[in-house]
C-alpha cells in the first residue's frame, strides 16, 4: 500500500488515503471527497483513453501535434497569457544548482506536492508563503526567471 499523501482538498499532510477515480486527485475523508466531487470536472480515465486524451481535463486535441506530447499552450487558457514564462527562462530553472540544492530538502518537496495536488492552490500558496523554506524556494525561482535589474550606479 502507498504511503499517505497530502490531501488535495484540505491540504492535511500525510492524510490522503483515497483517490478520485475520475482525475486521481488525493483526498483524506468523506467531507473532502464530497467537496472534490462537486468541483471535479475531469472525465473518467476510461472515457479519456477512448477519446484519445492523455492529459486529464486537457483540451480535445485541437492544436496538439498528432501523437505528440501536450504543450504549455494546450494546457493554459488564453486569458493566462500574461502569466506565462518563456520556455527559455523555464529551462534556466532546470540548470540552477542553487534550486537543485533546495529541492534536496524532503520537507520542501512535500510542500510542493501538496500544492500540486490541492484543489484550492491559491489559498494554500498564501499559507505556504508564511513558511521560510517555501519563501526561499519562491525567491530562488524568481531570481532565476526574473533576475533583478542592476541599479544605475555611477563609477567612482
Protein model, in words:
- This protein is mostly helical and 156 residues long.
- It is 45% helix and 3% strand.
- It has helices at 30-39, 45-51, 72-75, 87-95, 97-102, 106-117, 121-128, 132-145; strands at 18-19, 26-27.
- The chain has a two-stranded antiparallel ribbon with strand order 1-2.
- Strand 1 and strand 2 form a beta hairpin.
- The longest helix has 14 residues, at 132-145.
- The chain is elongated.
Unreliable stretches (pLDDT < 50, length at least 5) are 52-68
**β-strand number:** 2
Spatial extent as radius of gyration: 19 Å
Task: Provide the residue-averaged pLDDT.
Answer: 74
The largest beta-sheet arranges its strands as 1-2
- The helix content is 40-55%
The DSSP helix count reads: 8
SS-based class: mainly alpha
Give the terminus-to-terminus CA distance.
Answer: 66 Å
Label the overall shape. Answer: elongated
The arrangement of helices and strands along the chain is: EEHHHHHHHH
Strand content: under 5%
Main beta sheet strand tally, sense and closure: 2 strands, antiparallel
Write the layout of secondary structure elements.
Layout: E1 18-19, E2 26-27, H1 30-39, H2 45-51, H3 72-75, H4 87-95, H5 97-102, H6 106-117, H7 121-128, H8 132-145
Helix pairs in contact: 6-7
Amino acid at each position: 500500500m502507498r504511503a499517505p499523501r497530502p490531501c488535495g482538498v484540505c491540504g492535511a499532510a500525510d492524510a490522503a488515503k483515497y483517490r478520485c477515480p475520475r482525475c486521481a486527485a488525493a483526498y483524506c475523508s468523506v467531507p473532502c471527497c464530497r467537496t472534490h466531487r462537486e468541483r471535479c470536472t475531469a472525465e473518467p480515465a476510461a472515457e479519456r483513453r477512448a477519446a484519445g486524451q492523455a492529459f486529464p481535463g486537457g483540451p480535445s486535441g485541437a492544436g496538439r501535434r498528432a501523437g505528440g506530447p501536450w504543450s504549455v499552450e494546450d494546457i493554459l487558457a488564453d486569458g493566462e497569457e500574461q502569466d506565462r514564462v518563456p520556455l527559455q527562462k523555464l529551462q534556466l530553472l532546470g540548470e540552477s544548482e542553487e534550486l537543485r540544492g533546495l529541492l534536496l530538502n524532503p520537507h520542501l518537496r512535500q510542500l510542493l506536492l501538496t500544492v500540486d495536488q490541492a484543489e484550492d492552490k491559491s489559498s494554500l500558496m498564501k499559507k505556504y508563503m508564511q513558511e521560510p523554506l517555501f519563501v526561499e524556494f519562491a525567491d530562488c525561482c524568481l531570481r532565476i526567471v526574473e533576475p533583478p535589474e542592476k541599479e544605475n550606479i555611477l563609477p567612482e
